[in-house]
Design a protein that fits this description.
Elements: H1 2-18, E1 27-36, E2 41-51, E3 54-61, E4 64-71, E5 75-77, E6 80-82, H2 84-91, H3 100-106, E7 116-119, E8 122-128, E9 133-139, E10 142-147, E11 152-157
Antiparallel strand pairs: 1-2, 1-11, 2-3, 3-4, 4-5, 5-6, 7-8, 8-9, 9-10, 10-11
């Protein structure tokens, strides 16, 4: 009886801790990532990992993770998890659509495709109003989002081989 109880206990422990195990990411890519905003300044190697509706950006310096950003229904950073709109207000710009960070990282259109110009190897968008002056270009090689009015730059490119 005691042997069965130990076996059940061991099995329960394995199931409990397997929920915290490493995820098998569907997307796992190393990139050169540059982020410049009033709150974040970073430029080095990083990883973009995706699993289902979850996206994770790991930023490295000298081989160590210095910042991790997880995006799903919320955006989680060192100070905790927050609504996407709260993240934008704190780290980017409160006038941005709530899904802008995720769309830029994945190279998707922003602002519902406003001013979309197709190019032979991607697309570009220029969005200018009283709150933003965005130049956004996505190609097979790189992603570049620059808001010159608010001093925000996000660049993602593949490392040189």
């Amino acid at each position: 009886m005691m042997k069965k109880l130990l076996s059940v206990s061991l099995l329960a422990t394995i199931f409990l801790f397997s929920g915290c195990s490493v995820k098998n990411y569907e997307m796992n890519e190393s990139k050169i990532i540059v982020i410049k905003s009033p709150q974040i300044k970073y430029g080095d190697l990083g990883y973009i990992r995706g699993h289902g509706n979850s996206l994770k950006i790991e930023l490295y310096e000298m081989g160590n993770v210095v910042k991790s950003i997880e995006i799903n229904n919320f955006i989680c950073v060192d100070d905790g998890c927050m609504l996407k709109s709260v993240f934008n207000k704190k780290y980017l710009n409160s006038n941005y659509p709530s899904d802008i960070l995720e769309n830029v990282i994945l190279g998707h259109v922003i602002y519902d495709g406003k001013n979309l110009k197709k190019m032979y190897d991607g697309f570009g968008q220029k969005i200018k109003d009283e709150d933003v002056n965005i130049d956004y270009v996505v190609t097979h090689q790189s992603i570049r989002f620059k808001d010159s009015k608010n001093g925000i730059l996000l660049k993602i490119s593949s490392p040189s081989k």
